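Box 3.1 A note on notation
Throughout this textbook, protein chains are presented in two layers. The first layer is the amino acid sequence; the second is a token string describing backbone geometry. Keep the layers aligned when reading.
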Amino acid sequence: MNPDRRDRLRDAAIAVLAEEGGRGLTHRAVDRAAEVPDGTTKNYFPTRDAVLRAVAERCLEQYLALTAELAAGPGPADREGLTALFRTLLENVAGPGRPRLLAYLELQAEAARRPWLSALLDPMASGDFAGFEAAQRSAGLPVTPQRAATITLALHAAIPHLLGGGPGTLAAAGLDDLDRFVRGLLDAVYPPDPTPA
């Protein structure tokens, strides 16, 4: 099978899942999104579970590419650098990362009923815990596993709200100002040293 066409179908499936949700993810919808003849997706991915697996694997590939790119650069040198990193990651949720993250959330819902899918998704979530802890260490913060996990969980919890974009919810959560949100989160978990009088 043609690997370029396979990737085109997997990317189209991500777009369909992001735009139409789990119910809209059909072979025919992916064919239309990929602009290929009817039946092409079924030839590559014969069942709906095969399409879900293909989307999960593609999301994981994209996640690993993104994390490798971040890991290749220097980690944040201080609290300001960490703030900028986390703010940029959250900005990506409503920007270029939106389709992948919407698809990922749909996959998580499907994974509640499909253990094999949960196993495919697990490296993305667990990778964030390790990566975000390393970033906090790089910034010179007094990291403990519990503090690092609290930061990661708070960032993960922000994602559905940023994707939903409800102004009342964003304001209530402090997500209407991402810089302030990240600074407040870091201050709550790692209170700044009091300035001498």
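Residues 46 and 139 are 47 Å apart (CA to CA). Residues 48-72 form the longest helix (25 residues).
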